[in-house]
Design goal:
Layout lengths: L4 H4 L1 H6 L2 H33 L4 H24 L1
Helix pairs in contact: 3-4
Length: 79
């Protein structure tokens, strides 16, 4: 019989419930999406206005896309 740390420590179980976890998950998802959109808009702005490729922002955008698609593939294959 396995028990998690949350079930063994009663104070954490009372403070952290499923609603807290779902709110935290939604907040992290929204923050990640907003960060991606800001990086994308800043990359396009720098390219259109200054005619400069911002390689650091492009790396952030591509990393976000690769991680997102990788996690979608992982979860769909292992579920």
């Amino acid at each position: 019989m396995t028990t998690t740390l949350l079930n063994r420590v009663s104070i954490f179980h009372k403070l952290i419930d499923e609603r807290f976890r779902s709110h935290r998950l939604r907040a992290q998802r929204a923050a990640g999406l907003c960060g991606f959109i800001v990086a994308d808009l800043l990359f396009v702005y720098r390219y259109l206005v200054n005619h400069i490729w911002s390689w650091d922002l492009l790396a952030v955008i591509l990393t976000t896309v690769v991680v997102k698609l990788g996690l979608i593939s992982w979860y769909s294959l292992n579920e």
